[in-house]
Amino acid sequence: MPIQCYKVSVVKSDDKCIMTSQSLPSFFLLDEGKDLEHFNFKSVRSYVTHIKWIVREDADSLVVSAYNSNGSCLQVWELREKAIPVHELLSGPEQKYLTTVLWQYQSNFQHSYKVVSLATSKLTILNNVSSNYIVAAFADNSIHCLYRDSLKTLASTNLHITPINDEPLHKVARTVPDILHIDMSWLGNVLLVIDINSYLHLFKLPPQIDNSIPLGVPYATTILEYCLITGLDWLDLLLVLRTGMLDALCDRLSESFNKQSTAVQEFFFERYLCIRTSLYRLSAQGHNKANDLTLFLMLHSISTAFKSLLRPSEMSSHDKSPADSLTGVIAEGQCDIDNVLMHLEAKEFTVEPSTLQSLQQLIQWIADLALNLLIKLPDSRPSATKPYELLRDVKALNVLREMLVLIRIWGLLRPACLPVFTKSDATLDVLPLVFRLLSRLVQNVSEPDDTLIAYSN
């Protein structure tokens, strides 16, 4: 059976779509040899059921599935360069070679039932011949995970539905439903199976590395970094991680991220927080850390939204944007919020009063977060078992101080947008007090002074 290959190009020219087809090297499925004696495609009516690239990003390898009355046969073919000697009448006294490309047969896999669906890897991180799999589902509801180079079976299973304990007997399926389609996740860690009854079945796949090496921290970190840069979903990796490697994975990811330039960190910071949060949520002891990171993510998002409202009065006369000026003044360590205002240009922080009123709920959230952190301070102590706390994150605390300064300025423009506090002393000005306490905390987050802790009580 011939497999014909073509190169198709599409070009738009003068509002017309021009499609060009060019023939490429083709091949015939192999039906000779000791291991293929039952698949004589010439004598038995046969047809191709599936054909796919072994790797989405690699156009040099194909897996082809053929079927006849004897069963199914999967064959792997690779496009290779080959030097062909030129005839001596044409080459002259010196032997010459012509380099061309042709398809070469690699391996095969046989099964007595028809292939229903075929899934191959969409992504390859390691350049290993055994780093990607081919998964085939057959008409007998069996699923086989095969090595891509040798088509030897790595793992196999059968589709079956486990009835729910409280499900009525008349709703329990009497027969196993047939497989309709299978597909592999983008990172290749899970396999999704759909049956004819519209049930979804999820199977974990072995790590797409050398089968003798279990999924480790270095490989998982590489995958997470790839997701961080490309924006791919890392959920399927979370499904196969071991609980014991979560802390080491978080530490290694943080170490790698902190080595990047400031511009790179700022660009990917929100996605980085999302990845860390999802990792901590998997740990039995990481829920507090996940909550703190979620608060930081919300704080960072609000900060970005607030700073986007700032516009310089004269762009040509300023080297820094208003947001940069605010960050610089906050970094100086001022404890008095009114002194901070004296170092800022008031015109640069002016926002329409109607806009400020619409931000009141977010402003209230910022104030509530600041008070909540100060309330937790007396009960919080640095510990090796708590590698991350929002109270110990200087960056997060400085962002919070920046927001309090903006709230102070905007409150002068429209008092109705200010946060609401329940006070025992009606003359107490809460914002300057909270800003002063947070500023003292930033100066020594590892060991806050006793006066600050007593005041937080």
From TrEMBL:
Keywords: Activator, Nucleus, Repeat, Transcription, Transcription regulation, WD repeat. Residues 223-410 form the Mediator of RNA polymerase II transcription subunit 16 central helical bridge domain. It is found in: Nucleus. Signal peptide: none annotated. GO terms for cellular component: mediator complex. InterPro entries: MED16_bridge, Mediator_Med16, Mediator_Med16_N, WD40_repeat_dom_sf. GO terms for biological process: positive regulation of DNA-templated transcription. Residues 2-157 form the Mediator complex subunit Med16 N-terminal domain. The keyword Nucleus applies. It comes from the Eukaryota. It holds the Pfam family Med16_bridge. The keyword Cell inner membrane does not apply. Belongs to the Mediator complex subunit 16 family. Component of the Mediator complex, a coactivator involved in the regulated transcription of nearly all RNA polymerase II-dependent genes. Mediator functions as a bridge to convey information from gene-specific regulatory proteins to the basal RNA polymerase II transcription machinery. Mediator is recruited to promoters by direct interactions with regulatory proteins and serves as a scaffold for the assembly of a functional preinitiation complex with RNA polymerase II and the general transcription factors. PANTHER family: MEDIATOR OF RNA POLYMERASE II TRANSCRIPTION SUBUNIT 16, THYROID HORMONE RECEPTOR-ASSOCIATED PROTEIN-RELATED. Component of the Mediator complex. This is Mediator of RNA polymerase II transcription subunit 16. It comes from Oryctes borbonicus. The lineage of its organism: Eukaryota, Metazoa, Ecdysozoa, Arthropoda, Hexapoda.
